[in-house]
């Protein structure tokens, strides 16, 4: 399908760092205000943009994916009024950051052709990382006495895992084309 000319050895390093911070802010705002489907009104929405951390991780590098997920979670929790210091800064932020970090470590566009097999592997990695993230977040919320574990696991899993598994492989090729058109000289992944 699409191979990349983005290289670890050429181009600008500042570009992915700045773009990951912008993506983190956009992620937080989109999670707070662009989730029209309420799973648990006022508490859990279907995060149609949950694919952003893994997408950013793959496109811009694993550190960028972590920044997008971690800072996106902090921005979202502050805007949504759900910020809980121990939970948001430690468990939720780190675990959502890992949903960007791990795919970014496993899939480097400069070394891959995004054929059907790679896209299926991306979906499977998003599924596994999503299940681990949801389990940790649900355990934290249960420990804090906010939600029962399995209740949180079901609703947060539906909220986050489904968009990651569908959106990330679906959008990786078009996003790579846009990124390459916007920065044809290439850049270093961060």
TrEMBL record:
Keyword Membrane: yes
Coiled-coil regions, chain positions: none
Superkingdom, natural source: Bacteria
Keyword annotations from UniProtKB, A to Z: Membrane, Transmembrane, Transmembrane helix
Residues spanning the membrane: 12-33, 39-60, 67-84, 90-107, 119-143, 149-173
Region forming the signal peptide: none
Protein name: Aminotriazole resistance protein
Organism the protein comes from: Mesorhizobium helmanticense
Lineage: Bacteria, Pseudomonadati, Pseudomonadota, Alphaproteobacteria, Hyphomicrobiales
């Amino acid at each position: 399908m699409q191979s990349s000319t983005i290289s670890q050895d050429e181009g600008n390093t500042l570009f992915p760092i700045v773009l990951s911070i912008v993506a983190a802010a956009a992620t937080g705002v989109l999670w707070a205000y662009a989730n029209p489907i309420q799973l648990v009104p006022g508490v859990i929405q279907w995060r149609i943009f949950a694919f952003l951390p893994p997408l950013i991780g793959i496109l811009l590098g694993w550190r960028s994916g972590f920044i997008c997920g971690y800072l996106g979670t902090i921005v979202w929790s502050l805007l949504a009024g759900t910020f809980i210091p121990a939970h948001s800064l430690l468990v939720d932020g780190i675990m959502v950051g890992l949903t960007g970090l791990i795919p970014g470590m496993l899939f480097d566009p400069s070394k891959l052709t995004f054929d059907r097999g790679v896209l299926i592997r991306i979906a499977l990695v998003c599924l596994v990382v999503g299940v681990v993230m949801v389990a940790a977040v649900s355990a934290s919320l249960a420990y804090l006495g906010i939600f029962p574990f399995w209740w949180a696991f079901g609703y947060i899993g539906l909220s986050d895992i489904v968009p990651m598994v569908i959106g990330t492989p679906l959008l990786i090729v078009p996003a790579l084309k846009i990124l390459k058109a916007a920065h044809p000289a290439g850049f270093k992944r961060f």
